[in-house]
Design brief:
The chain is of the alpha+beta class. The protein folds into two domains: 186 residues, no CATH class; 151 residues, no CATH class. The chain has ten helices and eleven strands. A four-stranded mixed sheet has the order 2-1-3-4. The longest helix is centred in the first third of the chain and has 52 residues. The chain is globular and about 80 Å long. The relative contact order is 0.10. The N terminus is likely disordered.
């Protein structure tokens, strides 16, 4: 006959095993719930990032194309290497018209972002391009919409329809390949001084990678309405109590910045930054800048907040290019302009 203590111990053992099973089950459930919760939080953060990136003139991708198709009410055919790659919203929305929007995607260098065009690798004409706006420009060219308005409409739509955005994220969440989003744009793809203005403004009063000084390109352009200590050449010369050279206006600076950033020397400097360099200085002469019949504006010298010279011819300009904070070794990030100033000698 078994000992009573043995029976009791066996009963306790079975009860303990059941309790252990319940604990393990609860742990697995809690862990699974935590994973689901973390995954959902990740998607919400990514959704906010996609909207904010677009608001800050980031490039467009497949997630944005779905929203564009919804807003324009037209299916969009995506072509790649002259083959139909994908059709967005075809035969899934009864309200869509029979007219397709055709866009073509072109991959760039390895680990770099691509470029959107019309069919046959044609860039749209008579469409004003903003920074990283190639996707929106090819859509605008086929819908009659304004490029900037289209970007703004997409931002508003995605902001108000977070669930729609997360549903699109779910489609790509299983892929770790960033090319699956077909991100389009470049470090500097502007075709007008307006894009250069964005680059300069996004660098002003901002810290860059491995740099203790704030970006101050606007500290070399005249602007009597500026209030910050480095937001105009008048204020900058007064703050530092030293001689500073400056463009006669921000518009003049934007115009020259666009020509400078599209010059081969500046492009080479950006390639070196993407290769691991942290800072590059590019100086271009008057002859370097006067290409394609570009007429250089003039400049002045300033000290203690006032102009101390007459209008002077610009002989050369210097631009210091760096990385935005957190964007080191990211070839897709916009270039950071630490400073940009003219010289009269």
């Amino acid at each position: 006959m078994p000992d009573i203590n043995e029976i009791v111990n066996n009963d306790d053992s079975e009860d303990q095993k059941q309790r252990d099973r319940n604990i393990r089950l609860n742990r697995r459930w809690n862990g699974r719930y935590q994973n689901i919760k973390n995954n959902q939080l990740w998607k919400i953060k990514l959704a906010k990032h996609l909207v904010n990136d677009l608001r800050n003139y980031g490039p467009g991708n497949l997630i944005h194309i779905n929203a564009i198709s919804t807003i324009t009410g037209k299916p969009i055919r995506i072509w790649k290497s002259k083959c139909l790659h994908q059709t967005i919203n075809d035969q899934t929305n009864r309200n869509l018209t029979e007219n397709f929007i055709d866009i073509e995607y072109h991959t760039q260098l390895p680990d770099s972002i691509g470029h959107w065009t019309l069919l046959d690798n044609k860039d749209p004409k008579n469409v004003e391009l903003d920074l990283n706006a190639c996707l929106f420009s090819v859509i605008a060219a086929q819908t009659g919409k304004n490029t900037n308005d289209l970007r703004t409409n997409i931002i508003d739509f995605l902001t108000k329809n977070t669930e729609h955005l997360i549903s699109q994220i779910n489609k790509f969440a299983s892929s770790n390949n960033r090319r699956s989003l077909m991100i389009g744009g470049a470090r500097y793809v502007g075709t007008s001084p307006r894009a250069a203005r964005i680059i300069l403004d996004n660098s002003q009063n901002i810290l860059c990678h491995e740099c203790r000084d704030y970006g101050h390109p606007r500290g070399h352009a005249s602007n009597i309405n500026a209030t910050g200590p480095t937001d105009s050449v008048e204020n900058y010369s007064l703050t530092t109590l030293s001689m500073k050279s400056g463009f006669l206006s921000r518009t003049d600076q934007d115009n020259v910045a666009h020509v400078t950033l599209t010059h081969a020397e500046a492009k080479r400097a950006m390639e070196e930054l993407n290769g691991g360099a942290t800072s590059r200085v590019v100086t271009l002469s008057r002859s370097d800048l006067q290409r394609n019949h570009f007429v250089l504006p003039q400049m002045k010298e300033y000290k203690n907040g006032r102009a101390v010279s007459e209008n002077l011819d610009i002989i050369r300009v210097t631009i210091v290019l760096r990385h935005h904070q957190g964007m080191f070794r990211d070839p897709d990030a916009d270039v950071f302009v630490h400073t940009f100033y003219p010289r009269s000698s």
